TrEMBL record:
It catalyses: Endonucleolytic cleavage to 5'-phosphomonoester. Pfam families: dsrm, Ribonucleas_3_3. The lineage of its organism: Bacteria, Bacillati, Bacillota, Clostridia, Eubacteriales. It is found in: Cytoplasm. Its main location: cytoplasm. Residues 163-232 form the DRBM domain. This is Ribonuclease 3. Mg(2+) binds at residues 51, 123, 126. GO terms for biological process: mRNA processing; regulation of gene expression; rRNA processing; tRNA processing. It comes from Anaerotruncus colihominis DSM 17241.
Length: 232
């Protein structure tokens, strides 16, 4: 091992992601930056090809989840997916995982702070998704991706429809006698993949229904439906 170029052990990363590889080569490639592969020059593969595949797997997993979870128009789904799979989001996921600690970097990239560089971490996260997919198929890759996506949908305030409730409230409060409420009408699914169905009511009248992976996201979807009915 060359000091400062290879990261922490891959087995420790397996513990963090909750997946054990049958073929460790996929994980090794995912963690190998092109700067390291070019420097060592021993027929070592960088993670660039796996990054390409991981991007596609990420897109289909997120698209499938959003399609089946949110009753939103195509344009809204596209915006929401873009917010979830952008470099900033993937960098945040990588930071939460501590992925930078495990990367293999060339000396120059190491000295330039490559372990925390957003573009490097985002690419490595996609390569890691591909590694899981190549080793175990779509289901473990889906579980890994959704572990981050569902949390992001529930906890982040800057995603595509995050202001729908505020927009609806601003419209309704122009009439002080009107009362707006959100009612949870159904909850289903296992703990790791809950589905919530929420109605938004104006006084006693249902003006929108939304489904989501959290109560917060379901309320946003319901508010969005109500706004559409109002022509907003």
């Amino acid at each position: 091992m060359r000091p400062g170029q290879e990261g922490a052990s891959a087995s420790a990363l397996e513990g963090r992601i909750g997946y054990t590889f049958q073929n460790g080569r996929y994980l090794d490639i995912a963690l190998t930056h092109s700067s390291y592969a070019n420097e060592v020059k021993k027929n070592i593969s960088s993670n660039e090809r796996q990054e390409f595949l991981g991007d596609a797997v990420l897109s289909i997993v997120v698209s499938d989840y959003l399609f089946h979870t949110y009753h939103l128009a195509e344009g809204d789904l596209t915006k929401l997916r873009a917010a979830l799979v952008c470099e900033k989001s993937l960098w945040e996921f990588s930071q939460a995982l501590g992925l930078g600690d495990f990367l293999k970097l060339g000396r120059g990239e190491e000295m330039m702070g490559g372990r925390t560089r957003p573009s490097i971490l985002a690419d490595a996260f996609e390569a890691l998704i591909a590694a899981i997919y190549l080793d175990g198929g779509i289901e473990p890759a889906r579980r890994f991706v959704l572990g981050y996506i569902v949390d992001a949908l529930e906890n982040r305030d800057d995603l595509a429809f995050s202001d729908y409730k505020t927009m609806l409230q601003e419209i309704i409060q122009k009439n002080p006698e009107e009362r707006l409420s959100y009612v949870l009408v159904n909850e289903s699914g296992p703990d790791h993949n809950k589905k919530f169905l929420v109605e938004v009511r104006l006084n006693s009248n249902v003006i929108g229904v939304g489904c989501g992976g959290s109560k917060k996201s379901a309320e946003q979807a319901a508010a969005r439906e109500a706004l559409k009915l109002m022509g907003r």
